[in-house]
Amino acid sequence: MSDQQKKKIHKPTPISGFPEWLPEVRVVEQSWMDHIRRVFESYGYCSIETPAVEELAVIAAKGEDVDKEIYVLERLQADPDDKKDARLALHFDQTVPFARYVAMHFNELVFPFKRYQMQKVWRGERPQAGRMREFYQCDIDVINPDNLPIAFDGEMPAIIWEILSSLPGMENEKIQIRVSNRKILLGFLDSLQVNDPVAVTRIIDKIEKIGGDEVKRLLSAECGLSGENITKILDLVRTKDIKNLSGANTSMQEGVDELSAVMDSLAHLPKDAVVADLSIVRGLDYYTGTVYETVFLDDPTYGSICSGGRYDDLAGSYINKHLPGVGISIGFTRLFDRLRAQGKLPVSKKSPTEILVMPPRDADAIRSAYDAAHTLRRNGWNVEVAPGRKFDKQMSYAEKKGIRYIWFVEDGEVQDRETREKTKAAPADWKKS
Fold first, then answer.
1. Inside any domain, residue 115
2. Which of 25, 45, 281, 390 could form an S-S bond across to 21 if both were Cys, CB 3.0 to 4.6 Å?
């Protein structure tokens, strides 16, 4: 063969930050999705899906500095004479698309509007453990015109606990949902006449990662706070007994009352499943009340795997309506990949197939195998007809794919590969319970 005739091969390599699972891992991933979806819907949340792209103006209206995170889209064959800036970008979260969606469909929705969204998002981050460029998020939000009852703030942690405590592979993980209310710290900072409360809250939000001593240093060096005020602030955020906490002003007291109401509504959960933690303030300034973070107790430095909170008017940038809401988001791929890397996922089957139908030895009677497979599928089973004609290879195929039942059409028998037992059976009578 001449050099010109040789086929040029490009050896592909993984694209950093864009996960790609083998079938047996994907099976577990789908089971997680199904589980989360069932719990969301059991609480009355309805599914929506928004486009992968949003207008840049829509993303910018949120007010966050996301220029370094978003992937902007341009046509590959753009007109060289077209000097207009790109207008579209891949969404970097599902909060902005949800707010825009509510604004656009306001007159068609039933309020309070309870929605869940399970989609991929994209962020231009440097890939590392727990940080990816393409990943799934599973969000729920409730939004309502003018006023949203505080009861919904209590519903969010209850849903998340139900999901996370029963996900396949999470049985032995110790997780904790930490809840606070931004009005408490912000009200307290106002009573101390702190000039830049946002800077203070962003430093306090890092206390789990950087420790109390570094927080003290930053509050002094960057915020100019006195040692006395720093001590008062740290004493507050370390407070665990909110029942005996008194507000220094109206705003702080309102936050204490709201947090107390949320914690009371969660009293049915196991001890320490949900705790009040006033150091949780969340770095995103659009949160105005209740805030949540969920951590691994055995690995708190890993960061939050599920977070969110209440916002006063996130959709107000897109519609002239006051639309308070509360939401929480599961960092699905971040959580999933952690358990995958640790070998904790129940990975076994490489296929959803439950029954492998063995064709008869007479090639002219192959139709009977397809008829049997069709009948079994109608009865609720996932079925394949065995490829090829060699019995050993067919059985090896079933073993590699983790297929439990072998259906011998010619003998009218089915074999359970786990027990090795064979029983007489007819496809029409084999119904999945």
1. yes
2. 25
| Residue 221 domain flag | no
Q: Tell me what the mean pLDDT of segment 15-39 comes to.
A: 94
Q: Are residues 361 and 326 in the same domain?
A: no
Lowest mean pLDDT among 50-54, 191-195, 285-289: 285-289
Rounded Cα distance, 198 and 423, in Å:
70
Of 286, 314, 341, the residue that ends a domain is 341
Number of folded domains in the chain?
2
Does some domain include residue 212? no
406 and 367 in a single domain? The answer is yes
For residue 394, give its domain range. 355-429
- Of 104-113, 213-222, 340-349, give the range with the top mean pLDDT: 104-113
Residues 40 and 148 in one domain: yes
| 103 in the same domain as 53 | yes
Specify whether 375 is located in the same domain as 310.
no
SS3 per-residue string spanning the chain: CCCCCCCCCCCCCCCCCCCCCCHHHHHHHHHHHHHHHHHHHHCCCEECCCCCEEEHHHHHCCCCCCCCCCCEECCCCCCCCCCCCCCEEECCCCHHHHHHHHHHCHHHCCCCEEEEEEEEEECCCCCECCECCEEEEEEEEEECCCCCCCHHHHHHHHHHHHHHCCCCCCCCCCEEEEEEEHHHHHHHHHHCCCCCHHHHHHHHCCHHHHHHHHHHHHHHHCCCCCHHHHHHHHHHHCCCCHHHCCCCCHHHHHHHHHHHHHHHHCCCCCCCCEEECCCCCCCCCCEEEEEEEEEECCCHHHCCCEEEEEECCHHHHCCCCCCCEEEEEECHHHHHHHHHHCCCCCCCCCCCCCEEEECCCCHHHCHHHHHHHHHHHHCCCCEEECCCCCHHHHHHHHHHHCCCEEEECCCCEEEECCCCCEEECCHHHCCCC
At 127, list the tokens: 């890939």
Q: Do 38 and 142 sit in the same domain of this protein?
A: yes
Ramachandran region, residue 328 (left: φ > 0; alpha: ψ -120 to 50; beta: rest):
beta
pLDDT at residue 125, rounded to an integer: 79
Q: Tens digit of pLDDT for each residue in 324-339?
A: 999 999 999 999 999 9
Asked if residue 292 is part of any domain, the answer here is: no
Which pTM value belongs to this model?
0.89
**In terms of C-beta density within 10 A (0-12 exposed, 13-18 middle, 19 or more buried), how is residue 32 classed?**
buried
CATH of the domain at 130: 3.30.930.10
Q: What is the CATH number of the domain that holds 388?
A: 3.40.50.800
